[in-house]
Amino acid sequence: MALPLTRVRAIGFLLLLGVGWGLTQPLGKLAASTGHPPLTLILWQTVICVVVLGTLTLLRGKGLVLTRRALVFYIVVAVLGTLVPNAAFYISVHRLPSGIMSILISTVPLMAFPMNLALKSDKFEVKRLLGLLLGLTGVAIIAAPGATLAPGLVAFLPVALIGPLFYALEGTFVARYGMAGMDPIQAMFGASLMALAICLPLVIVSGSWVSPMPPWGKAEGALLISSGLHALLYAGYVGLAAKAGAVFASQSSYIVTAAGLCWAMLLLGERFSPLVFVALAVMLLGVTLVRPRPRSA
User: Fold this and answer.
1) Helix ranges restricted to H, the chain
2) Neighbour count for residue 290 (Cβ, 10 Å)
3) Phi, psi (5° rounding) for residue 213?
4) Exposed/middle/buried for 40, CB within 10 Å: 0-12, 13-18, 19+?
5) Where on the phi/psi map is residue 180: left (φ > 0), alpha (ψ -120 to 50), or beta?
6) Rounded to 10 degrees, what is the CA torsion of 239, 244, 247, 249?
7) CA distance linking residue 78 with residue 85, whole number of Å
């Protein structure tokens, strides 16, 4: 019998999720150092996710849902949540510091807020508008000439922000239309399969194919660990959200950002100017203000 999820266990698991997800940022930068095209990295990352999530799906006695609604879900989430944001990630993380990427990922709630307002699925509040402006100020601090990045690297900030933008689009779609009656692990297994089905022909046509067979270097090992870790952490996140609530589980994003900075300094030797930490504080304050309050039961 599973142990009850006490508050202490829930907080401990939240910390574990955040620290683990933060680790995937520097691992992703190491994976990008292979020099392989982004499509190749996405292909093998997706293969690993399919294996991990497919195994979990089978162990839970579930199957792949093939209804029309499910197929639409798979296509939308594969494009919005995997193919486009991962391509943007690998292009930008090859050039930008991993720690900066960890800070930028926290902009997802900031981007989701105006989308939800436009769809009338959220309400306007001055406090949340202030949060959005603070978030944009944090990005502006990072982008300011000579503040944190070399002039040639600032141009890659918009590319890095494509990922959070598409994650916000994905989250808005799922919140509005649901998961076609599937549980989250089933849904993401199907979406990963769809991403693989789309990505494989693109890799072949573009001539980006790289054999996954050994010998593997440090970069290939980082891709393997990062992809498997992401799939397992996602399953853990789903379980935590189911038991402790989505609002509680979403607080992991703060830990992801902080942990990502720490892992970047520890594993990659990255060092940051004081302005980076000012930008981090301003941005996280903005995220705090933008997040909606939990709804009353």
Assistant:
1) 7-32, 38-59, 68-78, 84-93, 98-104, 108-118, 126-143, 151-154, 157-160, 162-177, 184-206, 218-244, 246-250, 252-268, 274-290
2) 25
3) -75, 150
4) buried
5) left
6) -50
7) 10
Which residue type occupies 50? V
Per-residue tokens: 297: 């039961």
Of 115, 120, 123, nearest to 169 (Cα)?
A: 115
What does the pLDDT look like over 135-152, one tens digit per residue?
A: 889 888 888 876 678 878
- The residues, ordered by sequence, that sit 6+ positions from 1 with a Cβ below 8 Å of its Cβ are none
d(CA 69, CA 179): 8
Give the model confidence (pLDDT) of 49-85 as tens digits: 999 999 988 898 888 999 999 999 999 999 998 899 9
Phi-psi category of residue 146: left, alpha or beta, with phi > 0 → left and psi -120 to 50 → alpha = left
∠ Cα 110 116 121 (to 5°)? 145
Q: Residue 5: helix, strand or coil by DSSP? A: coil
Number of neighbours of residue 48 by Cβ within 10 angstroms: 20
Amino acid identity, position 120: K
Residues 75, 80, 83, 89, Cα dihedral to 10°: -170
Rounded to an integer, what distance in angstroms lies between the CA atom of residue 18 and that of residue 266? 16
**Could you tell me the end-to-end alpha-carbon distance of the chain, in angstroms, rounded to an integer?**
28
pTM for the model stands at: 0.86
CB 23 within 8 A of CB 259: yes
Give the Å distances, CA to CA, from 159 to 104, 165, 236.
11, 10, 29
